[in-house]
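Q: I'm writing up a methods section and want to include an example of the input and output format. Could you take the sequence below and give the corresponding predicted structure tokens, formatted cleanly so I can copy it straight into the document?
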Amino acid sequence: MSNKITFKRNKIKKRIRKVVFGSNERPRLSIYRSNKEIYAQIINDVDKKTLVAASSKDKELTIETTNKIEISKIVGNSIAQKAIKVGIKSVSFDRNGYLYHGRVKSLAEGAREAGLKF
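A: Here is the clean output for your methods example:
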């Protein structure tokens, strides 16, 4: 069962990455979702560098809830604030093969609320 799920996600991921590409003007916001944590990175694919990163494991985040959807929204807020400090205002969203639902959607909404455009 697990192999079918990862195979399907990787197939979707490849299809998405054909279109989504991070440049200097518009870097890529890539996410990774594990069972417990959620991670987000803003990546410049031209220079192959991570510009900004945030995760639910960060010490500076004050997470008082155990609800993973609310934690994802906090992480989205955090990555957007860090990106705006660096000077990034718009990104292309790479959902990394995950469905745009639940924690992925919550992270995107949190980033949009904090001022990031995609």
